[in-house]
Design goal:
By secondary structure, the chain is an alpha+beta fold. It has 15 helices and 19 strands. Helix 8 crosses helix 10, helix 9 crosses helix 12 and helix 12 runs antiparallel to helix 14.
Length: 450
């Protein structure tokens, strides 16, 4: 096996790379980077790239703290197919020579290392990224980028797909150039909504790819005069943007741990226990996988005027049933349909893995599967079956998160206390700012009501 640094240098030279984007993300998943010329390759690899962490975003720093040093991961090398000569290197933030425990990539890497060292297992994930393509009107408002995309049932519509051919085919070529294995591209359920699928991988690689994919889609849309958004619910009348997360556990020798051909759903006892853990911690994990105020306008609302709603409202699992939170599309994997487009993929992966492993450790039972269409049942009928609802707002989800000891331990400790408390404080402030804003809906509803 070659030296990673030497291999990276050789690959970059072969690809004609002139600049590296030394990239990391903050708590919200916002990518931050410095452009480092290839002539400074050794400087970057020896000392990393320095950042004022307080200025970069929510990363547990004040203006008085030492620099965050972004240390590149050579295995994450990703050339930009649309900008020759530039490549991304995903980085782990360090402070004073130690991994910075507020950094989402550091949190996930620690959990994955523990999984490998203590159990000999590998966590694999796949992400289905939905996004909307919009344009700005002359008045500054937003509208669907394709003015002809007005069908009441636009999902999979070939005309809507073809009208966005330049964008979708470019994304497909880029994904395959990168070796990600693009296997489908489609018009999704909302007007102006699309999805490009690629193969699953180990959880750290998938999370890196989610960050890169969002960055790429934003840039391609910008270059084409459009605006791309992964916002969970950009329009109240249009289907929201999810990031369905497929999960499975494997041995270090690449043997699947979730497969069982004799089971009706193709799941092993280990998979059912993992499923039980996901269910038990689902309300607390919502704060991490649905991390914005807007997230809760996607989950479990009434059907929009465009298409349908595919976001789960209830804590339930089933087979190939798209009305439940945890769907088993085929044996050997579990799809979490609650994760949305605003989620930080490192933190989402960490929270779901911790929940599932707790289920395995305790031998959790998921209970009976749900085969009904939950969207068609009244809330009273759902409650009568003992099925609980997901939180209705960010502040409620945060309240559940801080009480969950399993997620608290898994997300780790920081110099200021538990990461969960830092995360909760940031998200509570976000909710409070939203709650203090008086909306047009309130003016219309209450201005002259009494």
């Amino acid at each position: 096996m070659g030296d990673p640094r030497s291999d990276l240098r050789r690959r970059a030279e072969d690809d004609g790379i002139e600049f590296f984007l030394a990239l990391f993300v903050d708590l919200h998943g916002k990518p931050c980077a410095k452009a480092v010329p290839a002539s400074s390759f050794d400087l970057l690899m020896d000392g990393g790239a320095g950042f004022a962490g307080f200025a970069a975003g929510d990363l547990g720093q004040s203006p008085a703290d030492p620099d965050v040093i972004a240390v590149p991961d050579p295995a994450s090398y990703t050339p930009l197919p649309w900008k020759p000569g530039v490549a991304v290197l995903h980085c782990d933030p360090y402070v004073d020579g130690r991994p910075w425990p507020y950094a989402p990539r550091v949190i996930l890497r620690r959990l994955l290392d523990e999984l490998a060292e203590q159990r000999g297992w590998v966590f694999k994930t796949g992400a289905e990224m939905e996004y909307s393509l919009l344009r700005r009107r002359p008045d500054g408002g937003l509208e669907c980028a394709d003015p002809l995309d007005t069908s009441a049932k636009p999902c999979y519509e070939v005309k809507g797909l073809t009208r966005m051919w330049d964008h979708l085919s470019t994304v497909s070529r880029n994904l395959n150039t990168l070796g990600w294995g693009n296997y489908a591209n489609d018009h999704e359920d909302g007007t102006g909504q699309f999805e490009n699928n690629w193969h699953y991988s180990d959880a750290l690689t998938t999370a890196d790819r989610v960050i890169f994919f969002r960055y790429m889609i934003h840039m391609l849309a910008h270059d084409a005069g459009m605006v791309a958004t992964f916002m969970p619910k950009p329009f109240s009348t249009v289907t929201g943007n999810g990031m369905h997360f497929h999960q499975s556990l494997w041995t270090a020798g690449d043997e699947p741990l979730f497969d069982d051909a004799s089971d009706p759903m193709g799941l092993s006892p280990t998979a059912y226990q993992y499923l039980g853990g996901l269910l038990e911690h689902s309300r607390a994990a919502s704060a991490v996988i649905c991390p914005t105020v807007n997230s809760y306008k996607r989950i479990g609302v009434a059907p929009p005027t465009s298409g349908s709603t595919w976001a789960p409202a209830y804590v339930a699992y089933g087979g190939n049933n798209r009305s439940v939170m945890l769907r088993i599309p085929e044996g050997g994997r579990i799809e979490h349909r609650g994760v949305d487009g605003s989620a930080n993929p490192y933190l989402a992966s960490a929270a779901l893995l911790a929940a599932g492993l707790d289920g395995i450790d305790r031998g959790a039972e998921p209970g009976p599967r749900t085969d009904d269409n939950l969207f068609a049942l009244s809330p009273e009928e759902v409650r009568a079956r003992g099925v609980t609802r997901l939180p209705r707002s960010l502040d409620r989800a945060v309240e559940e998160l801080v009480e969950d000891d399993v997620l608290r331990v898994a997300l780790g400790k920081t110099p200021g206390g538990d990461f969960v408390d830092y995360f909760a404080a940031i998200k509570q402030q976000e909710f409070d700012e939203y709650h203090a804003d008086v909306s047009d809906w309130e003016i219309t509803r209450y201005l002259t009501q009494a």
